[in-house]
């Protein structure tokens, strides 16, 4: 993959008002994307957004650029990222655009694209859009300008689609579920899906005000969810991120279950039901405990680069249908085309009902190895990971692990961070090793 100027691992992202996330850039991006993506007769682009206050500003700038390129915009309003992928595919649009910075704070925002097939754009297409950004903006004739309209039933269409992935032979009657929507795009979707399938639903993080998305709630901060599950004596808790493509779960005892554990549960359930085809894909960040647990049940496992798009690319290449990131992106190609937090949650709840077992017991055969993650704020062009002192400390840690653990160092593709992951058999030793590497990075910064 060549070095790209604007696109990261999950679209374009940054702080609102910076050189990328502003009306001027979005106008040009809409035009450039329109020039590259216009292929079919519909000449229509689906545009959705999460609950960030900046979404209003950015969606109309994108629409203006698309119109200048001759494409029409169909707005969905606030709706989860996977819903835009679904609507793009079912409404046969040229592409879908999501205005969201996912799990980031409200003052960040970003753009994600989906193809006509409801999948993330390839590197090649993103590079073509970047190339078009370097050209002067032109405008089609007045007769060829794009129009704009609102899809009035976007939310209800997606709710019915989510419900269709839950077995009709099962019912959630009698289940009590706490759902944390991160004050984000699922706030008016997920509770309705669960309620209409029969569950008693307790809502948190469902009062967005434009500036509280992901704030002390959602998949990146599950403390509220854990407390509420225990207080309500609920059967399970689901925590989504701001745009609804990640899910982290909490069992009836308040224990956290991440994407690795959720993937194992879904893979094992598919295996037991005779519906598993091939193996499962994780990432370089996936816990070794997942790999060992899948090996124990005879399921092949492969690791992709970090980023759900790369998980999907490897799944497609291998012809496999199940993949995930430990952050909670769960991709179920037998159900949909991209990571979908609500649909993943429904499959776990179905397994609980079918087996008459709590989440805790369904994952009891998988044991996570101690894994410590440290994030360090990073900006500028000098990458500390390439310095000899950091590489020497990292090599010493790897020698100390002696093949019984892993070290992964990388710069984030979605935030200005250096991410440190150390995994091993002893939590205290792993913690010490991770902080030793972190200190070496801070010393050269």
Descriptive overview:
The protein has a six-stranded mixed sheet, with helices on both faces. It is built from 14 helices and 18 strands. The mean pLDDT is 94. 37% of the residues lie in helices and 20% in strands. Helix 8 (259-272) packs across helix 11. With 445 residues, the chain is an alpha/beta fold.
The beta-strand count equals: 18
Sheet of most strands? 6 strands, mixed
| Secondary-structure content class | alpha/beta
From the spread of the alpha carbons, the general shape counts as globular
Helix residue percentage = 25-40%
Quick synopsis:
The chain is of the alpha/beta class and 445 residues long.
Keywords, please?
445 residues; alpha/beta; 6-stranded mixed beta sheet; 5-stranded mixed beta sheet; 37% helix; 20% strand
Topology:
Layout: E1 12-15, H1 23-37, E2 44-49, H2 55-68, E3 72-78, H3 81-90, E4 95-99, E5 108-114, H4 123-133, E6 148-150, H5 154-164, E7 176-180, H6 190-196, E8 200-204, H7 223-232, E9 236-240, E10 247-251, E11 256-257, H8 259-272, E12 280-283, H9 288-296, E13 301-304, H10 308-318, E14 322-324, E15 330-332, H11 341-355, H12 359-362, E16 371-377, H13 388-401, E17 406-411, E18 417-423, H14 427-444
Parallel strand pairs: 2-3, 2-4, 3-6, 7-8, 7-9, 12-13, 12-14
Antiparallel strand pairs: 1-5, 4-5, 9-10, 10-11, 14-15, 16-18, 17-18
